[in-house]
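HUMAN:
Just now I want nothing more than another pair of eyes on a protein record. I would be glad if you read both lines and explained how they fit together. I have put the entry right below:
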Amino acid sequence: ELFLIFVVIVLLILVYLTLKFTSLGLVARATMQNADMAACLGISTSRIYMVTFSLGAAVSGLAGGLLAPITGVLPNIGVIYIAKAFITVISGGSAILAGTTSASVLLGGVNGIMSYVTGPTFGEVALLFTAIILLRLMPTGITGRFFRKSQ
């Protein structure tokens, strides 16, 4: 499990560096913020969507391959993770990677601690309760307010 944590940290750093310091990252960020303007500047937005979707699918496949020996492989195993991933992205704000990262640390910590103390069911309830409070206090996500100020 420590190896998985190491791989996740390395992947997170690689994705951040790719989005921040490469021409692919610049074009992907431009397409994300304003696809019409990016297309006017000569960027093939459909190609960028294809590349970013492919990279996301590759990272998801790697995650599934690394997680399979620990949890086992079942046809409906993804259902457990889809809801948590959706809640994490919405809570963090989809504007920047730091929001999703901070939300995953917060919500994962709450879920882990409450699951250890009270059991897995109450861990899930605590995760949802934390997300509801977070979205009530910060409707644009954790980084939504900060991202808006920096523009």
